[in-house]
Amino acid sequence: MPDTHPRTVQPYPGEGLGLPASGPGAQASVARRAGAVAIDWALCWAIAGFTRLYTDALGDTATLTYFLWIGLGLICGWLFARTPGMMALGMGVARVDRPGERVGLWRAAVRIALTAFVLPAAMVDGGGRGMHDRATGTTVIYS
């Protein structure tokens, strides 16, 4: 049953969603999710820096890094339910309303748009779930 009380601190993250306390399927920690974002950002920064060696038509390195990160989050979230950073750290995005079903394009698009433009991923509820995940009916779990 989905968590209906976002301000209630739960015994462990994901408990209100019916997720296990640890192991595969457990909600990933905020620190691990931040590590995944750092890996994704570094990857996009390296690609942007390499691209800038050959052209500046796509903007400066910072702008290109940001747009690559958005594209990476959208495409990988949609097709694989995980970004390279999440995969490296053993995590993925899961739907909480229908476990086991694909995240899908619209959830991936809304999730990355909220993260990129509105709600920083570090904004979490009492259960440790990101606000962008609450809005899209998803959570990040250990795989």
Descriptive notes:
There is one protein chain. The two termini are 21 Å apart. This protein is mostly helical and 143 residues long. The chain has one domain (28-142). The relative contact order is 0.20. The chain has a two-stranded antiparallel sheet. Helix 1 (30-52) packs across helix 2 and helix 2 (61-80) runs antiparallel to helix 4. The longest helix is centred in the N-terminal third of the chain and has 23 residues, at 30-52. It is built from 5 helices and 2 strands. The mean pLDDT is 89. The radius of gyration is 16 Å and the shape is elongated. InterPro entries: UCP021697.
Oligomer: single chain
Let me know the largest β-sheet. 2 strands, antiparallel
The SSE order reads HHHEHHE
Structural class: mainly alpha
The overall strand count is 2
What's the rounded overall pLDDT mean?
89
Give the overall shape: elongated
Strand content: 5-15%
Number of domains: 1
- Give helix % range: 40-55%
- Taking Cα atoms only, what radius of gyration do you get, to the nearest Å? 16 Å
Strand order of the largest sheet: 1-2
Tally of helical segments? 5
Low-confidence stretches: none
Spatial gap, N to C terminus? 21 Å
Summarize this, please?
By secondary structure, this protein is mainly alpha-helical. The protein has five helices and two strands; from the N terminus they run H-H-H-E-H-H-E.
